[in-house]
């Protein structure tokens, strides 16, 4: 009888150790974009990396950036864009779909220089021209990218749940 009790106790002890050390690791989905999920661990890793560079960044900003990124990557894949990394794939897609159609006119560059001449610290127009053109191109690109993302978001199924239900 004692042997049976000892065996049962050892058996129970063994299984209690197995269940506590073999507990399931739980990673909940905090957002879904169409058929893709963003998990809490992915979000936390991205949030921590972003906080190192820009401490004022909020959780919502990071989550929205991750959602935008998934939407753009999906579009890039539709165009069969391939690149060694996701960042390069995004850049190539943006270059192909947006940057290629942005043209900054000479008149725009001249007007910008005239309005901001004091900010160029004595640099002449010709010395500043390329810098101004690049700035105006990026400014236009950001506007077009925001418009594109607004449209992509409108046509996508996006569900977020950053904070757990109580």
TrEMBL record:
Keyword annotations from UniProtKB, A to Z: Signal
Q: InterPro entries from the xrefs? A: OMP_Chaperone_SurA, Trigger_fact/SurA_dom_sf
Domain of life, per UniProt, equals Bacteria
Protein name, please?
Answer: Peptidylprolyl isomerase
